[in-house]
Amino acid sequence: MDIATFTDLDEYKANADAIVDGIKALPTAEGFTEVLVPGEPEDRVHDERVKNGIPLPTGTWQKLEAASTRFGIPLPTKSDESERDKGSGASAETHRRCPPRPFGRHRCRGASLAIIRRVI
Hints:
The chain is 57% helix and 0% strand. The chain has 2 domains: 1-37, no CATH class; 39-120, no CATH class. The protein has helices spanning 9-24, 40-52, 58-71, 78-87, 92-97, 110-119.
């Protein structure tokens, strides 16, 4: 949807930022240290997984190893990940191509899908 069709885009962004700022300024509930807005927990998980990888159950990893052996496709190593991140996957170039999320965040799964496609 093109928000600019309905309202001034800069004004819309300013209003959205003001709403988020207002929510974040609310007092925290007992036992919590901050107020989160919708999507914030997911953004944090995304950032953590881009940085450190996606945790896999042992059984899933064993199936990937079996598929790797069966089809003769090596599983990625740490050095593969470093090379991948330099020119594709979670690089800045990928983030320029993936669709923007509200408030300037991006959601893209290119790096993860590329590895999974290699194994399948």
